[in-house]
């Protein structure tokens, strides 16, 4: 069950069976009143930097959209970001989706905070969602957040057990508080498991606009630098840039740890999968699907909706047989998981 801080009951469930939106164009003056929205179309999502095909965060959201589309019978819409876009551009995108009758409308990523807040105010009868932000206080907004630090702690346990050089690496896409959570949990997991191990950390950029989440070449260069310094396990929280980290790990025959989705099973990364030890996952797909279902059921989720180890919405993937069959490693991870859930281990977020 998902833990929801509060629920807002809708007057009626959204209708199904609508034609998909082929584009989200229009002008900022097209939608200024909630009366314009018919609410007769299903889920729409607007992607974060990197877009669909990142084999990670955005693709997980798309998986949730596809599940909702199949189960509820309506056609859905997913919209790509554009280079150099502003908050106003994001707002217009969300407003256009709401105006054309989509409900719910989800912005994938913290960068949509200002846009979701503004669009939700214009369309109070439409449910909006935002992934990875907990700052919007509105009755028609669901803040879909995760305890990434908990999954990252377990990734740190795995890295500490797998390293032979006592040196592991962390590559973050952008130097922001969200990615600090990944780093903090990972470092704590390493330190608690193997005090002799050191963690090399690097952020690719200071802002998303500089390509920290969308530049595999930057990820590859950062990982290569850490591997030259003897890192034999590298954990990445870098979106599309993480593909470069995984490529570098495979080329140098060291372990990579993926993020968000189970990257061992991603088709685009298949040639590197033997070097993907595990992935710290967060079930963005479930969060997206659950919000759509709540609207379909006439009881839209609202407020902070958190996924953590206890709810099963963050964790470690075990697709790699070498990881799954390592009894000692699995026991260490299970012990850490139990202690986190019980509160015995308090995982840092910064």
From TrEMBL:
ABC transporter substrate-binding protein PnrA-like domain sequence ranges: 47-348
Highest rank taxon of the organism: Bacteria
PROSITE patterns with a match to the protein in the record: PROKAR_LIPOPROTEIN (PS51257)
Sections of the chain in a coiled coil: none
InterPro entries: BMP_lipoprotein, Peripla_BP_I, PnrA-like
Membrane protein topology class: Lipid-anchor
Localization of this protein: Cell membrane
Main location, first listed in the record: membrane
Signal peptide: 1-25
Annotated Gene Ontology cellular component terms: plasma membrane
Keywords from the named record: Cell membrane, Lipoprotein, Membrane, Signal
PANTHER family listed in its UniProt record: ABC TRANSPORTER GUANOSINE-BINDING PROTEIN NUPN (PTHR34296:SF2), TRANSCRIPTIONAL ACTIVATOR PROTEIN MED (PTHR34296)
Family: Belongs to the BMP lipoprotein family.
Name this protein carries in UniProt: BMP family ABC transporter substrate-binding protein
Organism: Streptomyces acidicola
